[in-house]
Amino acid sequence: MGAAAGIYPVVRVLASVLAAAAVILSALLPVLPRRREMSVLRCRGLSGAAAAGILTWESVLLGLLGSLAGALLALLASTLFSGIIPGAELVMSWLLAGILAGAGTLCAALAGRLAAGSVTRDSPGEALRRVNA
Description:
Layout lengths: L1 H27 L6 H9 L4 H37 L9 H27 L3 H9 L1
């Protein structure tokens, strides 16, 4: 039992890192198809900062909604399974759920900003030429 108890923190850290990577990739991937759309908007006069803001806030909103849904599902699962599995200590507090939702939203915001930087880095015409190539 002692060796098994020592591995749980490692598994938790690994699961957290994988979850953060999944959130970041989920925020980065939808931006790539929208490069053409942002390039056209920038050619029509939208500033790079405004384009970056659109993409960043979109990522924040999606990250917040997804993180809240995941945190609520985790609370529900911990409540249900702690009563079903004898001896299981599946405890998740509202505070932990809030911290996890905040961390997920932060990861999505950072990923959205990173993706927005790749879209707004070039001049509008150059970005549009690259998308069409």
